[in-house]
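User: I'm curious whether this sequence folds into something compact or stays loose and floppy. Could you predict its structure so I can see for myself?
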Amino acid sequence: MTIWADVLVRASAALAAIYLFYLAASTKWPSSYYLLDDAIGARVSKTTFSYLSFRFLPLFVASLCAMGYLSNVTERLAVALCIGVGHLVISVVRINPYTNPGPRREKSWYVLQAAVLLVSVCFLAIAVWLAPLFGTTLPQWRDFTTAIVTALIVVCVGVFIQSATSKDVAVNSNSIDLARRRYKPMVDRLALEHGVDRSFALALVIAEDLQRPRWFRVIERRLARARLARTVGVGQSTGQWFITDEQGIAMLLSSIGSLSSADGDVSRAKMAAAAEKCNEGDGYVEFVLRIHGLLEQGIYRTSLLDTDGNPLITASPLSLLRGEWVVSGDVGPSVHAITIVNNTTREIRSPALHSAPGLTRTSWSATLPVEWTSITVLPDPHVTGDYRSEVALWPPY
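Assistant: Here's the prediction. I'll summarize afterward.
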């Protein structure tokens, strides 16, 4: 191996080790506060020494290993120069708002990053100076490179095994949230048309979308056109090779028939039976019910039903946004106005209702003072009867 090839391999191994370390031990501190699950940030922030060690010790040790067994100062300087340039380029790309857009940063944050890079150069210079003293006691760069590759393989295999064996890998909140935003307006409208509980209909459609994602449905259509597949689309409909998502969902819900109850709560047994109509097997039924349970977490509703067979009012849990509570939901076709009442002070808010084309239900949203700790949402005028026609909300903390 030529001297320049040797220098580049040593520098590349050092840079790989540095950024593999920071990939495994990542923290957003001090650019932002560390959270409860950020163990690295909690340790790094304890003392000045712990922060400096975290920022500069990996660079220093990796550089010493890369320059080990090099007696020629020119070669050591060349390795240090390559590491420094690589470290600088990667850092600039990482913190540059044009190449890595993110939240708006204060000038002090960029000053801190520049200071860290400047001190890193100083540590590289110290490593060049100390390499003859400590370089022979550290692993040779070939052993170092082998260890880096081995560690990378072990980490990748470990992450794969952990993700593959996780009980929540098949049904996770991120996938459900994405599918919910994509399908909810369409599913709400079609569920009301076919007399199916909206929440169960959405869970069923999300289950179908996860099992037959869009890219797979495109392949199915090609195979069906060539008469190599019998079922296509959401719900695995038969009869034609091309079918839109809306058509597939409509056919899926029509195959279930009416699925609602007098008090708005469809029993788990009825939902299981409806899911089993679509796809036989306990595994699929449990899959749909698990998604339904995740969708239902924290949703508030009245026990009084509207003419569409769904709750008179629904409301999402309160969430904080810029120092105020944010709450939203929808109302049935017979509700034309709602009132939000502070149960402590009896103050009143009247949020606007927003109708959408094709939907019989109307959405609403409101921002409330953070001091409101007990809230009731009720139709205006208030409806009385055997079933509850108002929604009571409490902040999560």
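Summary: The CA atoms of residues 117 and 240 lie 62 Å apart. The longest strand covers residues 324-331.
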